[in-house]
């Protein structure tokens, strides 16, 4: 029946993300049948070559560190989130709030009286979701995040 005292997740990582993935990095695993119950893991190995699908993907093996949090079974569907870098004790905002102009990066903030205004900022590190703000904002400032709108068919 196999060894059930250890579980591994085989994940495919996009080639664009591969330069930042290393063995030993912490991973959050979300199993479809246990949504809302993230499981901790660690990158155990990274394949030496990519597999060709629509885009090149590299297989990563993740070892499951905490088996007590869910009653896992073999061959369940899962998603992994590899922590490639941690930003701690920084002011971070959603990357979607950052705009680029000729003078650099800027955001729209809610100013006194509730009116919106442009504020130039200096951005440090960026992830796919967040941007570190080095200057131009302070904790508590409210930034506007654009809402994606799509034309809906009229009936």
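Sequence proposed for the structure above (155 residues):
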């Amino acid at each position: 029946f196999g060894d059930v005292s250890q579980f591994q997740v085989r994940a495919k990582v996009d080639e664009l993300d591969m330069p930042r993935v290393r063995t030993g990095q912490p991973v959050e695993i979300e199993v479809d049948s246990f949504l809302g119950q993230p499981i901790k893991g660690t990158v155990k190995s990274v394949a030496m070559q990519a597999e060709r699908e629509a885009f090149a993907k590299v297989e990563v093996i993740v070892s499951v560190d905490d088996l007590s949090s869910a009653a896992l079974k073999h061959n369940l569907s899962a998603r992994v989130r590899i922590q490639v870098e941690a930003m701690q004790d920084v002011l971070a905002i959603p990357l979607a709030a950052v705009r680029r102009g000729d003078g650099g990066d800027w955001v729209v903030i809610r100013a006194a009286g509730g009116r919106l205004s442009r504020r130039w900022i200096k951005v440090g590190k960026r992830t796919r979701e967040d941007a570190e703000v080095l200057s131009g904002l302070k904790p508590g400032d409210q930034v506007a995040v654009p809402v994606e709108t799509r034309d809906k068919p009229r009936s």
